[in-house]
Design a protein that fits this description.
By secondary structure, the protein is mostly helical. 78% of the residues lie in helices and 0% in strands.
Length: 457
């Protein structure tokens, strides 16, 4: 991630004796990348772990349909609070302290899941963990992006989504292995504590973001970091963005809805919501969906295939995001995945159509989802980046929570065809909004990318 100060105009010449060794630089970059990737994987693990555990815990805790929906949606509701709030705090207090605190919340919440005795307790614990997930989206990826060079940034950030899907798939495997064990769902949900403990140890010693320091006018501190670690930063561009920003006068959250940032706010929240709503709703209630399609006996095996197809899809997205550009990875897959779900809804009696339709949906949806770790970080300037990402995360999870909460009732009342057609409509909406609002930010410096997103250049 370090630039070469002899050739890169964005990197200032460091003072003699104040430069970290190549080994120290590599160690920092590796720690930051791993700490962010594991945190992202933990998000997927926490959300994915409920899929195969839900049936057993519903029976053990005697949950009603309403309680089942609330437990399934609880982390998504928590993200709605945690994303904007912790993102706002990170824009005010800095990235580093929040980067540590939200992982501590994960650790405590993971352990508490083992001891719940009713649906209300599980809902509250997973709601709090959802707040931490929201913070992770709002803080971890922005911090990594602020250390990343312009070239190759998309692949680096998209790799976070690979981690998310790997975490989701791993939770599915753990859930399947413990499905036949008495009280296995408790061990399955609590196992995320091990991942959180490893991640927390990695986060110690990671310094503050130089871009955030510049956005607060702390130039000398920022340049010391830039010089020491060879960070690629357009110092003048970041300082100019900070001076022009309204967040100090208005507050970062309010600034998102000014003319300066509204285009980015609408785009980031809408495209993300349209991508994840069908995914979360269908995967959380995969068993009932497959039963409604007459394939209930194959639901567990299909969920494993579904999960690992998603890993393949997001990996493909990561590999091509810097080659084909952001827009091409986002807009066509919206229309293709919409067609895939619609085809299953129209022709539900064909096993081939069901399998092919879902495979196309999950592979391409996951490929485009690589951009959820890229676009929101690129369309907002540093002064409001974590607030903007947090708000976009919250909006995406509002849709996901609504879909997750309503899907079981929709299946009971209107049938699987209606549910799948609704998902197709949401994906089509994402395609329309992205066509008009998605900027092309490939290989641009973050400050330039933010200007491009709002139409300044």
């Amino acid at each position: 991630m370090a630039g070469d100060p002899t050739t890169d105009p964005l990197v200032h010449e460091p003072p003699a004796g104040d430069v970290a060794s190549p080994r120290e630089r590599k160690r920092l970059h590796t720690k930051l990348k791993l700490a962010t990737q594991i945190g992202e994987g933990l998000d997927g693990y926490v959300i994915g772990g409920i899929g195969l555990a839900l049936t057993a815990l519903t029976a053990d805790l005697h949950l009603s349909t309403l309680e089942e929906g609330l437990v399934g949606a609880s982390p998504l509701i928590g993200i709605f609070v945690g994303g904007p709030f912790l993102g706002w705090l990170a824009d005010r207090m800095g990235r580093r302290p929040l980067f540590l605190c939200d992982m501590l919340i994960f650790l405590i919440g993971s352990v508490l899941q083992f001891f719940v005795t009713d649906g209300a307790q599980l809902f509250i614990v997973r709601l709090i963990m959802g707040i931490a997930i929201g913070g992770e989206y709002a803080i971890g990826a922005p911090l990594l992006s602020e250390y990343a060079p312009s070239r190759g940034r998309g692949r680096l950030l998209a790799s976070l989504e690979i981690s998310w899907y790997v975490g989701y798939a791993l939770a599915t495997v753990v859930g399947a292995l413990l499905a036949g064990v008495e009280g296995g769902w408790r061990w399955s949900l609590a196992s995320s504590a091990l991942i959180a403990a490893v991640c927390l140890t990695l986060r110690g010693g990671i310094p503050e973001s130089a871009r955030w320091l510049l956005s607060r006018g702390r130039r000398s501190e920022a340049e010391a970091l830039i010089a020491r670690y060879g960070i690629e930063v357009d110092v003048d561009g970041e300082l100019a963005e900070g001076r022009q920003s309204m967040e100090r006068r208005q507050g970062a959250l309010r600034a998102l809805f000014t003319r300066r940032h509204i285009r980015s706010t609408v785009f980031a929240g809408t495209f993300w919501a349209c991508l994840v709503l069908p995914y979360f709703a269908i995967s959380t209630f995969w068993g009932p969906v497959f039963e409604a399609l007459g394939m209930g006996d194959n639901a567990a095996a299909a969920l494993l295939v579904y999960s690992f197809t998603a890993v393949a899809g997001v990996t493909a997205g990561c590999l091509v995001v810097d080659r084909i550009g952001r827009r091409r990875l986002l807009i066509p897959p919206f229309w293709i995945t919409a067609a895939g779900l619609a085809l299953v809804a129209v022709w539900p009696e064909s096993t081939f159509v069901i399998v092919a339709g879902f495979l196309f949906f999950i592979f391409l949806n996951a490929a485009s989802s690589a951009l959820t770790a890229v676009y929101p970080l690129e369309v907002f300037p540093t002064s409001v980046r974590t607030t903007g990402v947090g708000f976009a995360t919250a909006m995406s999870r509002v849709g996901a929570a609504v879909g997750t909460f309503l899907l079981p009732m929709g299946l009971d009342r209107f049938g699987v065809e209606f549910v799948l057609l609704t998902g197709a409509g949401v994906l089509a909406l994402g395609g329309v909004v992205s066509h008009f609002l998605a900027p092309e930010t490939t290989d641009l410096d973050l400050a330039t990318a933010a200007r491009t997103a709002r139409g300044d250049s």
